[in-house]
Design brief:
The complex is a heterodimer of chains A (133) and B (356). Chain A has 133 residues and is of the alpha/beta class. Chain A has a single domain, classed as Rossmann fold (3-Layer(aba) Sandwich), CATH 3.40.50.280. Chain A is 40% helix and 18% strand. In chain A, strands 2-1-3-4-5 form a five-stranded parallel beta sheet, sandwiched between helices. Chain B is globular, with a radius of gyration of 23 Å. The longest helix of chain B is centred in the last third of the chain and has 24 residues, at 291-314. Chain B has helices spanning 2-10, 14-25, 58-71, 120-135, 151-158, 174-178, 198-219, 229-241, 249-253, 272-289, 291-314, 318-333, 339-352; strands spanning 46-51, 76-82, 91-93, 108-114, 140-144, 161-166, 187-190, 261-263. The chains are: A alpha/beta (133), B alpha/beta (356). The interface between A and B is medium-sized, with 32 and 31 residues.
Chain lengths: 133, 356
């Protein structure tokens, strides 16, 4: 049996706009993935524990508050501390172009800005997810 | 590798627990080698099934129950099932959204499962998830069902305690009977009890339970008849409505089987203390009077049959299984053999373990 790709979709930080996260969740579901949706205002600690317990392959973070330079790397860092560097992290939302190289240097696999077709995100996950522990 | 995965689960390794649940869910044969490591802890956890229609407040109530159990220093595992899309096979699993306050509590492990359109398979996957969490040392494992379909009935084969949740406003009283799941509830909850019609739902559930108990007594529990149906009903009703002591527990101990019916407002937590207390005390009562052991024994027999039939279905999977099936189907279609004889022939091939 083919293994399902499991994705945690989370919104770290304090902004209350989850439309983008919901669009992504729906698109990934429609692509046959199992999406664990955690809702608004999640701390990096909550997101990481969720990813561990849910045996996630991917963590998708959406943020519009501008705190991405702090919160995204923190999620990657906590995953590493918990021996889960194999879980891929990518981000989306309102992220200035000039912040992207910094985020990538901190282990964020990719950043998808507004207007990215969901098919691009789906394809990115399919290509990059590894299924071994 | 899987043997050590089992040991890591017993040691409480979160990643190992999570991965093993996935592997068992996928029916990965190598994962089953981990199960012998779990035998020592088998039967140690109190498995609580939370079931009821979509929107009844199962997740919110589960969230509040987790807090109550944690106050008693009990470690809590949760298996929350949500439906898969029948179109894409994907799923959005949102039950844990309401439980995220517990995400960083090391004494709580929450795992979402997608129903994946399986019939029997879902309860097997759920049951394995329960076994893994039990082995990992969780004292209580809560299973939140998907809220629709056959798996609702299967929960009674997995859980020691089934909590059936209703809400006001779902329809007329006949819905309570139509649902056909009254029989599986050990504890009944009317959630959103601040809404109009809550008392009516409460009364309807009680009436149904009384009728059910009366019918049962009339047939299989004949001895209690001697006490007179009138007094029994009165007793049962008193037990349910009694506010001072725990409702219905005397009835459980006396084998009278009129389950407690409680009101909650999960959102505010009202009534949840009493619910948690009722769940735990009922469990102690059934453990003491031996009915828990009987129920678990019956459940294991059911699960054994279920798993054997799933092994049997494996016999027909793959290329050789398919061709075996084709051969007999052809003969049936060509009227060389009747379908019953064909099935017997296939069955004896299966019994003899003919190599594929």
């Amino acid at each position: 049996m083919e293994r399902k790709i499991r994705v945690v979709v989370a919104k770290p930080g304090l902004d209350g706009h989850d439309r983008g996260a919901k669009v992504i969740a729906r698109a990934l579901r429609d692509a046959g993935m199992e999406v664990i949706y955690t809702g608004l205002r999640q701390t990096p600690e909550q997101i990481v524990q969720t990813a561990l317990q849910e045996d996630a392959d991917v963590v998708a973070l959406s943020i519009l508050s501008g705190a991405h330079n702090h919160l995204f790397p923190r999620v990657v860092e906590l995953l590493r501390e918990n021996g889960a560097k194999d879980i891929m992290v990518f981000g989306g939302g309102v992220i200035p172009e000039e912040d992207i190289p910094f985020l990538k240097s901190k282990g964020i696999a990719e950043v998808f800005g507004p207007g990215t077709p969901t098919s691009v995100t789906v394809e990115f996950i399919r290509t990059h997810v590894r299924k071994e522990i | 590798m899987s043997a050590s995965l089992g040991d890591r689960c017993v040691a409480g390794d979160v990643r190992a627990i999570a991965r093993l649940i996935s592997l068992l869910e996928d029916g990965d044969v190598s994962a089953f080698h981990a199960l012998p490591a779990f035998l020592e802890r088998a039967g140690k956890a109190h498995v609580i099934g939370i079931t009821g229609p979509p929107g009844a407040g199962k997740s919110t109530l589960t969230d509040k129950l987790i807090s109550r159990f944690r106050n008693k220093d009990l470690k809590v595992g949760v298996i929350a099932v949500d439906p898969s899309s029948p179109f894409s096979g994907g799923a959005i699993l949102g039950d844990r959204l309401r439980m995220q306050n517990h995400a960083t509590d090391k004494g709580v492990f929450i795992r979402s499962l997608a129903s994946r359109g399986r019939l029997g398979g879902l309860s097997r996957a759920t049951n394995f998830g329960v076994k893994v969490l039990e082995a990992a040392g969780y004292d209580i494992v809560v299973v939140e069902t998907v809220g629709v379909g056959q798996s609702e009935i299967d929960i009674v084969r997995i859980a020691d305690t089934v909590v059936l949740i209703s809400v006001p406003g779902l329809g007329d009283e006949i819905q309570v009977i139509k649902a056909g799941i009254m029989e599986i509830g050990d504890i009944f909850v009317v959630n959103k009890a601040d809404r109009e019609g809550a008392d009516r739902v409460l009364r309807e559930i009680r009436t149904m339970l009384e009728i059910q108990a009366m019918l049962r007594r009339g047939s299989s529990l004949a001895p209690t008849l001697s006490k007179g149906i009138g007094t029994d009903l009165h007793h049962g009703l008193g037990a349910i409505t009694g506010q001072g002591s725990l409702p219905g527990l005397e009835a459980v101990e006396a084998g009278m089987e009129i389950p407690p019916v409680l009101k909650t407002i999960a959102e505010t937590g009202e009534g949840v203390d009493l619910l948690a207390q009722t769940i735990l005390e009922r469990f102690d009562a059934v453990a003491k009077n031996g009915s828990l052991a009987i129920r678990r024994f019956e459940s294991v027999k059911y699960q054994l049959k279920d798993m054997v039939s799933s092994h049997a279905m494996d016999f027909f999977s793959g290329e050789s299984g398919e061709s075996r099936l084709d051969a007999f189907a052809r003969e049936v279609n060509e009227k060389k053999i009747d379908i019953y004889a064909a099935s017997r022939a296939l069955f004896s091939a299966l019994i003899k373990g003919e190599t594929r």
